[in-house]
Amino acid sequence: MNMQELKELIYQGEKVDIECKKAEKNVPKSAYESYSGFANTKGGYIILGVREDKTKTDPKERFIIQGIEDAPKQKEDFWNTINGNKVNINLLTDDDVKIVEDGSISLIVIHVPRADFNMRPVYVGENPYKGTYKRNHEGDYHATEHEIRGMIRDQNPEGNDNQIIEYYTMDDIDKETLRKYRQIFEIRNDGHVWNALDDKSFLEKLGGYRKDRKTGVEGLTLAGLLMFGTGQAIRERFDNVFMDYRNESQVTADIRWNDRITYDGTWENNLFNFFTKVTPKLTEDLKKPFKLEGGVQRIDDTPVHKAVREGFVNMIIHADYLMDAGVLKVIKRSDSFEFTNPGILKLPLEDIYRGGNSKSRNPHMQTMLRLVGFGDNAGSGFPTILAVWKSEGWIKPELIEDTNLDQVTLVMKMEKESDDKSAEKSAENSAENSADLKNREGMALSERHQQILAIMEAGIEYSTEQVAEKIGLKGPRTRQLLNELVNKELLACIGTTKRRRYIKPVD
Fold it and tell me: Does some domain include residue 163?
């Protein structure tokens, strides 16, 4: 990285992955807090030798490159400290710490990678509950106790769903749910030796019931209770876990959804019931080409059906059910699906997209679903989704990690990639011509413009997809209309093109 590239980085301003420090004569203590914060969040850059003038708002005026004294010595001091007992682990290599010079000005750039799940939390000092930091758009902050507990849980390579839930027994299993599961299992695994087992023994084989040989304690595991338990037992033990499905296809300004499944007392709200109730609703509108297997039996399942189910399975097996609060949220729209689960990513995004390595939090749930035909083998699920979407020519599915809310959302848009590129080009052209569009006196708004303004509440952020659903248009056309309203200064927008959100100003 040269000085020009570094300036471009600095003038973006401090954000979740960039932190500037004055560090005129020595490395400040706060640099190690930033090191912890980056390692526990998404990684980032610490830049030493940049002063911040908080009275300015323009990043080019706010961040002043002044350099540091004796950069080689400060670099050596940093290495001595990071390799000592200042932090619990050093994640850096020689290539991560560089001196960048321009004439008489020297800066130190420290690239901090995101720590692997089995290395988090990365903390300052000797106490993780006092020295663990995370990052948000405002800088470093002390991680909360539940965030730290979550990091410690995630260190377990065997996942979390094998732990015994004390005092929960076979009496807490919903017999109808387990009967339904066993029926599907028997059809798919005719002649399997497990089919002759009683329910308790069958659950033991699945990992849903376990006895600890050391302590003698036995009972349902987390996987067994959440997958097959009675709704009451689950709500007593996991009152933090909510399941919510909404069909937001073709909604209007007055109707936020036209179908919803959440707990209402009419069904046992365990995970297997949620999955089997919602899945048919997700796929009922997907195209089913007329195709016969062996010339006799019609095939109603397609790769797209399987990919959507894989997205659902992905949500269940990667969720952190031990967080203080969390929602398993499934949203169906006319041209997309969204699956949101509590818990951040255990692996880097590039590893997930590449596949071949599964580190699910709930491997026993993964096995339970796979044995009845739902979900691919470990590590192949997400690449399967990508391959199917690519074969359809649709926009690449996106995993969005929110480290502030501790949740991950998988967005699967059934929108042609060419349409999305055309929309981005249209948005660019619209921005370039904004001077011609702004504040034209007497220029009437179209009916679509007025419709958008009518359905948007002031001060609330909306995505293109949310607005498109409400007005019944495709994403690219909706995006164009929204950008036209931005150019007319009737809406404000935030974020990059792909994640842009729109706000109607408060009067």
Answer: no
